[in-house]
Amino acid sequence: MNVSRVVDDLMFRLYHKSYNDFILLIARGQTIPRLERVSPSHSNYSLDYTLDEHYDETRELFYVEYLNSKYKKEGFDYRTDDGFFCLNIELMIYCHIWESSLFLKSLKHITDLLTGHEYDWEIELPDMKIKPFIKESIIKPLVDIDDEFGQLLKKVYSPNLRNSFAHSLYHIDMECRKIYLYIKRPDEEDCVGREITFEEFQEKFLYSISLCYLLRLSINHQRDMAANSHGGAITKAFKVPSGRMMQIFADYKEIKGKRHPVFSGVLIKEGVHRFKVGDWAKFEGLQTPIEVIAVKDTETEQFVKLKGARKMCSSTMLEMADAQDEIEYNCKDYQIIRRYLS
Questions:
Q1: CB atoms closer than 10 angstroms to residue 315
Q2: The model's pTM
Q3: How far is Cα 216 from Cα 64, in angstroms, rounded to an integer?
Q4: Which of 1, 8, 2 is nearest to 219 (CA)?
Q5: What is the pLDDT of residues 269-320, one digit of tens each?
Q6: What is the 3-state secondary structure (H, E, C) of 167-200?
Q7: Residues 250-255: contacts with CB under 8 Å, at least 24 apart
Q8: Chain centroid to CA 186: how far?
Q9: What is the rounded distance in angstroms from the CA atom of residue 87 to the CA atom of residue 180?
């Protein structure tokens, strides 16, 4: 099975099956509890959620370096002097792949999209019992619809490998070229033994690592494609679970000398005020009025530039104000306003 072809076909199908949900997948849509307390839009909805990617960075750097050291030449089969060491390393890498929050969340989003469910902003991975989550919430729904991507996941995922290694219940026999897996049942004192050949394990290992790497690579490529809109809207307004409407924009941002795609979502309110140059506006919940010095209208949203601001902001953040309003000025308001304007 060609993993690269399967992933390319997967991206094509997701794009055409539900475009808005596909954009949320590559934009890493996520709700963050209590975000509305500090968010300009008073919302928990967030795009470009990068914590999972940050957690994954070291793991990815390690397995890429390992692969480059052992698999640049074809034919590696653990018959080298360090074969025993490599098997243990690969078991660890294999388990980490199937514990990765970034990887598993991506698989769950993909499963939901392929099976006709809406994008889930609040996916939570179980702290325990990850096996039933992967088998029942990801693999089974895809196998039930006879999906090729689901068949690939079924082929490469082995909960016995993960559980045996994680609980130190395995034995590597270099002469027989087998890995013996011992799984403890809740109702049994002894371990139940299973075995897998080196060749069978290596196939699962290489397929898993290829899938994890190529899936992330493909999503990042789609992010770059979307960012070519150069700040423009890449979706029409669509409804999020709270009932409000959202529109997504994408652009590039330079970070430490490199261009990175960034996504932003604008929550659109019904009956939003339309501002004109010379009006006075104030941020929701604050009292300080600020003069409007420029406006830009789109089909569904208006952006305004306030005096002292470096860039425009959505009018959904603002309320109409009177320049003559009596202002109760305090340090906290000032800090919040400066953050909005910077």
A1: 23
A2: 0.77
A3: 13
A4: 8
A5: 655 557 788 888 887 667 778 888 888 876 566 788 888 887 888 777 787 7
A6: CCCEEEECCCCEEEEEEECCCCCCEEEEEEEHHH
A7: 250/27, 250/223, 250/226, 251/227, 252/227
A8: 35
A9: 13
